[in-house]
Amino acid sequence: MQLYLPIADIPVNVFLILAMGAAVGFVSGMFGIGGGFLMTPLLIFIGIAPAVAVASVASHIAASSFSGAISYWRRRAIDPALAVVLLSGGTIGTALGVWTFTLLRSLGQLDLMIALSYVVLLTAVGGLMFWEGLRAILRTRRGMAVPMRRSGSHGWIHGLPLKMRFKRSKIYLSVIPVVVVGLIIGFIGAVMGIGGGFILIPIMIYLLRVPTSTVIGTSMVLTLVTMVFATMLHAVTNHLVDAVLALILMVGGVTGAQFGARAGQRIRGEHLRLLLGLLILAVGIRFAIELVIRPDDLFTIRETGGAG
Amino acid sequence: MIARISLAAVGLGLGLSAAFALSPAHAERLIVSVSNHRVTVTPNYSGEELVLFGSVEKDATTPSTRTNYDLVVTVSGPRADMVTRRKERKFGIWINTDYRQFLGVPTYLALFANRPFDAIASPEVQRRQQLGLNNVLLTQRVGPDYADVVPNDAFRSAFVRLRSEHGLYREATSAVTFLTPTLFRTGIPLPAEVPIGTYDVEIKLFSDGALVTRAESAFEIVKVGFEQFVANTARQSGLVYGLVTAFMALMTGWMASIVFRKD
User: Fold this and answer.
1) Is A112 domain-assigned?
2) Which chain B residue lies closest to A66 (C-alpha atoms)?
3) Are B249 and A239 an interchain contact pair (Cβ–Cβ within 8 Å)?
4) Where are the alpha helices (DSSP H) in B5-54?
5) Domain tally for chain A?
6) Cβ–Cβ < 8 Å for B168, B108
7) Searching chain B, which residue's CA lies closest to the CA of residue A294?
8) Which of A21, A250, B8, B96 is 20 to 30 A removed from B217 (C-alpha atoms)?
9) Cβ separation of A239 and B235 shorter than 8 Å?
10) Which of A161-170, A214-223, A285-294 has the lowest mean pLDDT?
11) Does A4 map to a domain?
């Protein structure tokens, strides 16, 4: 069934988008991530303008993280104080991100920057995760106990001033690194059309030492608020949010996520990390190839305004 | 969904809405009409074809020897500014580097004739009358000046080629058919991504390489339905649109958490 997307300005097959939403939802449910880093590239690959893809996926992630956040809230797996501090940085980061997005778009370099940031971020994070997962699997094969990875003491982070007690997470931590982390995630989320969960969760575990009981729920709150905010800003400044596209993605996504979550419970942790690492790495490499090989067409056209 | 009008309707259409040539100095008169003056684009619109038909009316002063007419039809859609960018290899990757601005160029442009432009008129007349995509004026901003460039300019030809690939620019030198020596018709294909607005149709009649007379007509493309409402709202009231979209996202998420609630 063909449907015309009002903002993306192209006709698409509803079932294709629905299936993509469900597939990404499945993956995101399985790994407990938002899935923006998969959704945005997929939309770009089927021909939707990168700018529209980024802006529309923001609202799609808002929907999936909201349903996730509700269930984590019921299980009391969200640290409200930590979420608020993260958000203070996150909202500023999002605003900066949308501003940068608008600037790059007017310079004609937005598509390049989106692709470049995907290459850098995804190959780095994907490579690390893959390596970590592989090492953990090899270690268990050899019969060694998997050590809980704490990667050094990070004394300097815990020596920073403005310390605050986060009761539910049972940690005593300076607010400075928390705000900075929120800012960075908000920024890259708005520019790249990702929730940032796959970067935020490792940072929170390894760097801020947030316990695993509250880390996913709290990161979902940050994702939720920054993505709602990003949707608003993209709608107001760039008019690029395609609500029809977003709605189809949401419906597919939230459904797929439920099945993904069930499948995820049956797979071992390190295998899950290995798979996720491979997936992220693959998307990053796909973008890298796109940049390096000679494009089919060296020229592009963009409408810049009506002349009456 | 291609709406072709049957020949039977030609006679009716001629009487309904005919545009008359304005220059009485000539011996011929063109009477033309398009099959539909208002095309509505609905959500499942996947392209349509309008039909332009008309006839050459002779009067007493027309030289009786004049029978071989040539016709060129130019359809130009609403005008807009556009930027064409060129990618170049820098540091091993392909980056947008150089660009040209096209000012007030038609978003849709179609040129139809009954035979090749070279056979209709001399290169000089082709240029003056803007016959063919190579001769149509496409204004570029060149430094502080505004000018069109030679047809084989890299940016101009890339611009025309890209628009043609989307069916938005086209040239067909056998699209106009004469049903009788004076009665003619041509189809105007409108692809799915056709821009909305007013389209001008200009019909030029040539004989022996010289312009005899011209006529004008127009039609309008409007988008209706839910998606157009969405597009308008997004452009005109971004804040409300953003709020509604964000609210929709939250509702969907909330619904999902209820539907799939695990006890």
Assistant:
1) yes
2) B253
3) no
4) 8-16
5) 1
6) yes
7) B94
8) B8
9) yes
10) A161-170
11) no
Taking CB atoms and an 8 Å limit, are B87 and A234 in contact across chains? no
Question: Average pLDDT over chain B, rounded to whole?
Answer: 80
How much is the pLDDT for B23?
44
B187 has which bridge partners?
Answer: B51
Choice among A10-24, B3-17, B58-72, B136-150 with the minimum mean pLDDT: B3-17
**Among B92, B101, B249, whose Cβ lies nearest the Cβ of A231?**
B249
The answer to whether B48 and B3 are in contact (CB under 8 A) is: yes
Whose CA is closest to B203, among B21, B14, B16, B4?
B21
Alpha-carbon distance B198 to nearest alpha carbon in chain A (angstroms): 10
Quote the pLDDT of residue B141.
80
Partners of B201 in beta bridges: B75, B217
Confidence of residue B262 (pLDDT cuts 50, 70, 90): low
- H/E stretch holding A40 reads helix A36-45
Domain presence at residue A3: no
Q: Is B224 on the interface with A (CB under 8 A)?
A: no
Q: Are B134 and B123 in contact (CB under 8 A)?
A: no
Option in A63, A108, A112 nearest B83 (CB): A108
Please tell me the predicted confidence (pLDDT) of residue A147.
52
For residue B35, the one-letter residue type is: S
pLDDT at B11 over 70: no
Contact: B45, A59; criterion CB under 8 Å? no
In a domain, A199, yes or no: yes
Q: Does B137 contact A at CB distance below 8 Å? A: no
According to DSSP, the residues that pair with B141 across neighbouring strands are B101, B146
Q: Give the pLDDT band of residue B19 (cuts 50, 70, 90).
A: very low
Query: Exposed, middle or buried, A293 (CB in 10 Å: 0-12/13-18/19+)?
Result: exposed
Look at residue A228 and tell me whether its pLDDT is greater than 80. Answer: yes
